[in-house]
Amino acid sequence: MKKKEIRIVAASIGFALCFGIMPVAGAMHIMEGYLPVGYCVLWGVVAIPFLVWGFLSIRKTVSENRRSITLLAMAGAFIFVISSLKIPSVTGSCSHMTGTGLGALLFGPAAVSVLGIIVLLFQAILLAHGGLTTLGANTFSMAIAGPFLSWGIYLLCQKLKANRKVGIFLACTLGDLFTYCVTAFQLALAYPSDNGGVAASVVKFLGVFAPTQVPLAIIEGLLSVVIVIALESYASPELKSIGFLQGGSEE
Fold first, then answer.
1. Do the Cβ atoms of 49 and 223 come closer than 8 Å?
2. Residues facing 197 on adjacent strands
3. In the predicted model, what is the mean pLDDT of the chain?
4. How far apart are CA 232 and CA 106, in angstroms?
């Protein structure tokens, strides 16, 4: 083998090693075994009422309007795909978008809790992203806390008669960021700092997430607006049937 060929092979091996050895993913989807058992149980119990509410909400929506199933499936697929695209964070953890804000605007935050836990379960089993023991904590942060804030912000923007697209952008962007704030609190509660306790630990975790998550949240807000514009153009009857549009699209 010639020297040039040896260099090419060596370079390919180095490239493969760089991209094949992945850091531990311990950001928004808290990884398996990272939380103490007591906290795993606590967050799981807290999530249960929202999941029951979400199941009843979805059953009511589907029973009243069978056409909503397509949009519901789209919202779940959007959450799965967009939250599976992980970007390395500054400490070897990862950041990613959530996709739950859009679902909350279309079907309400309770329904998203069910979509979210299904996505998190598949990601934990198939992608080793998150974990089964931390399923309750991850569900609360990504599929409950974030969507409820997105929903509240969107309703507030409607009351203030703000532009629909501005409301969608703010709701999805801030809902994404709030998910990370809740995750930081969950981690800080389980692992308080020796100097400053939980508050200091929250600041530390937020500082870790912020450099990558802030731009990702803005991208998610913009992407959600683009998707709604597309839906208004090609699926306005479906949007009207679930009550998202009232007589037509709004500027």
1. no
2. 193
3. 82
4. 12
User: What's the CA angle centered on 130, arms 221 and 152, to 5 degrees?
Assistant: 35
Give the helix/strand (H/E) hosting 95: strand 94-95
Identity of the residue numbered 186: Q
Q: Is 198 exposed, middle or buried (0-12, 13-18, 19+ CB in 10 A)?
A: middle
Residues 6+ apart with CB under 8 A from 173: 101, 217, 218, 220, 221
Return d(Cα 84, Cα 172) in angstroms, integer: 17
Please identify which residue in the block is written with the tokens 């056409």.
67
**Rounded CA gap, 144 and 118, in Å?**
13
Where does residue 37 rank: exposed (0-12), middle (13-18), buried (19+ CB within 10 A)? exposed
Helix (H) / strand (E) containing 194 = none
pLDDT in tens, 52-73: 999 999 999 888 888 888 889 9
- The amino acid occupying position 142 is M
Over the range 158-172, which residues count as b (16 or more CB within 10 Å of their CB) and which as e? eeeeeebbebbbbbb
- Strongest mean pLDDT among 87-101, 178-192, 201-215: 178-192
Distance CA 234, CA 239 (A): 10
Least confident stretch, 75-79, 127-131, 154-158: 127-131
Helix, strand, coil distribution of the chain in percent, nearest 5: 75, 0, 25
Mean of pLDDT values over 81-94: 68
Q: What phi, psi does 244 have (nearest 5°)?
A: -75, -35
Task: Tell which residue, 142, 178, 183, 143, has the closest CA to residue 26.
Answer: 183
Q: Whole-angstrom Cα distance, residue 182 to residue 163?
A: 28
